[in-house]
Structures are given as C-alpha cells and as structure tokens.
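Here is one chain, start to finish.
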Amino acid sequence: MRNISILSAVLAAVLAGCASAPSDSGSMTAHTEVCKATNEQEISALFDRWNSSLQTGDPHKVAANYAERSVLLATVSNKPRLTQAEKVDYFQHFLENKPAGKIDSRTIEIGCNTAVDAGLYTFTFGTTGAQVKARYTYTYKWDGKQWLITSHHSSAMPEKT
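Its structure:
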C-alpha cells in the first residue's frame, strides 16, 4: 500500500510539472498553449503564397516559406532537403523550368498551431508547356508570426491516366 501511495505522489508531481512552467519571477504557474485561430481558407492560401514565390524565380523567396527545421521531399529529387541551403539549391534548378502549380483536389486538417494540406496538384512548366500531375502533403506550423512549412512531400502520380 505504501508503494502505491509513493507512486501516486510521484505521478502527481510529474503531472504537475508538465502543467506548469516557471514565470519571470521563478514561481511555478499554470501554462497553456495559445492556439492560433485559423480556417481552411487561410490554410489553402498558404499554397498560393508558396506558388506565388515560385513565380518570382527567386529560390530564396521560395525557401523562405519553410521553417528552419523542416524537410522537403521533392518530386524530382532523391535527396531529402533539410537545410535552407539545400532547399535553395533544389529550387534554383526547379525554377529554371518556370513551374506554376494548380490544386486539383485537397483535404485540410487543422490543429492547435498546426495544419495539414494534402491532395493532388498539377504543375505546368512555362519553358516547355509540359504538365506533371503529383500528390502532395504540406504540414504547417504557426511560429507566433506566420505559418511556415515544416514538411513538404511531393511525388509524381504513379499511374498514368
């Protein structure tokens, strides 16, 4: 019985520690995360922001859409792009073909300071007129100032229609 009481006391202390954080005065106070109010329209506009940055032709502007700690699993690269420099390198080559994306279908899920936009899109390349249909997933995180991409996965459609 004594072990159960000790275990209960330890568990209560651990849970109390998870629910509190030091304030400026050093005392323990309750901490709750403030969730950014958003909606599907705001999250869908994040693709438009990304797509508009493609139209600038500047790989640095495209890479600025990604959080510092993020991953890009691009359609036409076997290498995961983890750093901003790696993302800039990828987009430098990708932008040479003057791509423009269009969402064909999507599903958006919204959480507390996070969102997922997944679906199908088509890229048209201005240099050749070629089109590539692909699947995509963007995950976003609110950093207190703006939504940034934390992961972006894109892959060409496996079945030719």
